[in-house]
Dihydrolipoyl dehydrogenase (Pseudomonas jilinensis), 478 residues
Amino acid sequence: MSQKFDVVVVGAGPGGYVAAIRAAQLGLKTACIEKYVGKDGKQALGGTCLNVGCIPSKALLDSSWKFHEAQEGFKIHGIEVKGVSMDVPAMVERKDKIVKQLTGGVAALFKANGVTSIEGHGKLLAGKKVEVTTPDGKTEIIEAENVILASGSRPIEIPPAPLTDDIIVDSTGALEFTSVPKKLGVIGGGVIGLELGSVWRRLGAEVVVFEALENFLAAADEQVAKEALKTFTKQGLQVRLGARVTGTEIKRKQVIVSFSDSEGEQQLTFDKLIVAVGRRPYTENLLAPDCGVDLDERGVIYVDDYCSTSVPGVYAIGDVVRGAMLAHKASEEGVMVAERIAGQKAAMNYDLVPSVIYTHPEIAWVGKTEQQLKAEGVEYNVGVFPFAASGRAMAANDTGGLVKMIADAKTDRILGVHVIGPAAAELVQQGAIAMEFGSSAEDIGMMVFSHPTMSEALHEAALAVNGHAIHVANRKKR
């Protein structure tokens, strides 16, 4: 007799595990299938994000920033430190401990909420049946009233730079270096490339980032992207725009990278090369040919606004569907789907999904960019406040960057918040909360913000939208 569940979730990443927990909380008999195995050879929940993505990269970013601060940032505070060194294996071990703690935490949450955890590879068959292939190769069929596909994504591989065991690596391999490479190449100037490039740059590597596009951080607001490029260049990241990698060759444990840019064909040699050109949906062996679920030409599972696939009772969430590949977007989709299965009228506001790059300074944004609004022909006002004018940022010796707020010229409704600087992600979240409630810039300007705080910069940017900023000169109205 096959097992029967109200909800079967395929994948235990930030989309899948959250969907499973929420479904169980709503009284639905729920199972979650996951095949990922951790370093200890046991099933590890949490998906890419917890195991080889958001969490471990943040651990290394924080460790490397502390090292950089000890080396170069303490002196201004009157702290004398001599002979600071970085024990890379210890840094990596700390990262692994955090990962193990969090993946174990998900397992405990499954237990607490009554979710049945199943180890193996899940494949959707016709009639809402799921085939599970266990690690020892046995198969069993599970029946479900509802199926949620949350299989996530994997790094894109490119023909000019095929991965090797330890010289040409993807984002996962870049988290496992046991020593600092002298020269490091990074293909891809997006979120992952910049974060990983920053980690090893701070620890002493000479880093070159190859970005095929002419525009730096094309998805971000142009003013913020320009500020970011200036800052990263000052930090020693060499960002080459319009640089297309055409080939790689490994010689004497080094990699020769051939690329073309505005100066023609060139070559550079590195000790390590990270390929970080994006991610693609992980749908290998996920769908039986007769299961009825449709994929588009890019291998993305087709869903509607509520994450329903073309098969009633089958849903897909996270990196396998349209939209940004972000853990928090996947989680909220998981909650929405679980609640809809339970008969609630849940929906998700896709216009207010924040984006964050965890470099230093952080870069974050929510809503529309100035270039998007220009293209749409929307009239808007802009308020900008630099952290250089923030007392709290000065006290912290962290004055790089700015807060930018964009509001509708007619209604004053906030349309976008863009930050590069200290606590950027937290400030943008304040903007997202305001925007969710339809706030105007004036609303934010009329609120009392505690002093001195980083968030006063958001307050001042809101005031600046209408020419009322106190701690910076206002732009004259045109």
